[in-house]
Structure formats: structure tokens, C-alpha cells
Amino acid sequence: MSAAPKITALRGGHITLAAAADAFLATARTANPNTHRAYASAIDRVIALLGRDRPLEEVADAEIGIALTELWGASAPATWNRNRAAVTSWLLWCQTKKHWAAPSVPGDAERRKENTDETRAVAKTTIHRLLSRRDIPLREKTLWRMLYETAARAAEILALNVEDLDLEHRRAPVRSKGGATEWVYWDSGTAHLLPRLLRLPDGSTRTRGPLFLSERRPVPARRPAAGDICPHTGHARLGYDRARVLLEKYAGLDLHQLRHSAATHLGEAEVPLQLIMGKTRHKNPRTAMRYVKPGAEAIAKVTEVLAPRRRTH
Predict the structure, then answer these.
(1) Residues with Cβ < 8 Å from 202, sequence gap 6 or more?
(2) Tell me: the pLDDT tens digits for 15-43?
(3) How do residues 238-285 score in pLDDT, each as one tens digit?
(4) How many CB atoms lie within 10 A of CB 69?
(5) Residue 210 pairs with which residues in a beta bridge?
(6) Given phi > 0 = left and psi -120 to 50 = alpha, else beta, which region is 210?
(7) From the CB of residue 257, how many other CB atoms can be counted at a distance below 10 Å?
(8) CA distance between the termini of the chain
(9) Nearest to residue 146, comparing CAs of 272, 255, 285, 5?
(10) Distance of alpha carbon 232 from alpha carbon 163, whole angstroms
């Protein structure tokens, strides 16, 4: 009786970077649209730099580190860590799940320390002044107002489609971090801006596709999924990194500060923690408490209690 043929694991010799990325992005771990978009953005930029058609096994660890540094080396620690983690997850999956000969993120491209910033909450007057500036484009003004009024995560709002909007009740369903579908609510400021954002040059209104669009149509080499392209204009969905850069450019803020500020302002208005948790959709009170510390404006105001009494005569 002849011996059974020996079965060897596929080592990735004929697997290109693009094919490996596509395989990873088709797995259940990226089923959440927000997660998929974040991972795809980071991985796509890395493989575009390295060469989409290169065999996976030919890429050295050092090349991964060089690509990460070139793309995000000068970014904030949180941005570096987020994109590094996406690439790390992809490469580990290639090695452990598919048993492909894949590179690793090198040791010198280590995770960076994210310092806690106690000034993350922006004063309400500062936010309203920012959103009333005439030099802010309509798209950015609508996005920032919506992030503040919904107290939602930036990735959740950027993932919204026009057909998701319930304009009458000023709400929309979003896919949260844990994968649940939850409602976010906005107020009159966002409600006033949305119709203008949806209006097309010919006077008609967008009815489908991504809510927030990039300035240009995508190039064929980096064409996103069909669901991320507006059927009316051909423009792609606005990406997180571009949105982040624009808020930094105009205001020196990061996107999460709008959510943080909204929670802080609710706390300063003595809104009960349970309602703040409902608004921000935090499940753990201890987590929510990090966001509802009194801001600098409120602390400065309460300091007046310690001042000497004014003379009345």
C-alpha cells in the first residue's frame, strides 16, 4: 500500500500583497463596515507604497517599518498606533491563519505612548465660534457640527449614507464599536446644514450614497468599493485621515475632541450620567466618567466662589 501524499502548507510564494490584503479584508473580523474601512485604508496605503503585485514572501520586515514611517511617522501617536495596529493584524493573520511567509512589523516601529490630555474638551464658545466662521467649507462645517451634536465617533458619522438619514426626526442608525446598530441624534444646527450639503449643482438632491464625499473622483488604481462611491457625482466617501487633517488645519483640533467636548458640556449642564451614557452610547459608567470631567471653562467659573466678597458700599 503506497504512502499517502505529503501535504504541505501554502507558503504564500504566489500570493501578492493585494491578494493577501483582499483575503484578510473578507474575513469576519472586518465585517463591521467602520472596521473594514479603517483597516482597508491603512493596508491599501502600505501595499500601494510597496507594490500591490509584489509577492508577499519577498517583502522584508524593514520595508514594512519604512512604509509605516513614511506614511504616518510624523502623525500624532494615536494615528500612528491605529494604522500600525491595522497592518500588524493583517500580517499576523497571514502568518498564523493562512501560514503564508509574510513579513512582520519590525521592533523599531513600536507602538507610541499616547499622553492623556486634560485639555481635550473645547469650550462651547470656541466650538460655536469655529462653526460660524465664513472660511470653513460647508462639508467640514456640517461634519463638525454633526460630530458635536451627536457626540458620535468620527468613523460612525463618516460611514453614514444619505439613505440612512431620518431628516424628519433628526436621527440616523450607526454601527457602533461592538457591532450593534444604534441611533444617533442631532439638533437644529446640523438639520439646517444637511439639506445644503445634499444639494447638487443642478438644484436636485442626492438620495443615495455616502453622506460626506471627497473633493475628487477616485483614480482607477485605488478605486474603493461601490458602496463608497456616490452614484450622483462619482466621488468617493470622505476618509478619516483627510477629515482629521482638515480639522487640524482649520482649528488645531482632532476629531475626537468634538465628541469629548459634547460629553463634557452635558456634564457641566448637570445632565445625569445615565443620560450622558445614552447620548455617547458608553456601556460602562467608569468609561463615561473620563469624558464628563468639568472643562477648563467650568473650573474657572467655579473658582469665583473662592474670591473675596465684593464690597457693596
Answers:
(1) none
(2) 999 999 999 999 988 877 778 888 998 99
(3) 998 899 999 999 998 989 899 999 999 998 888 888 899 999 998 888
(4) 13
(5) 161
(6) beta
(7) 21
(8) 114
(9) 255
(10) 13
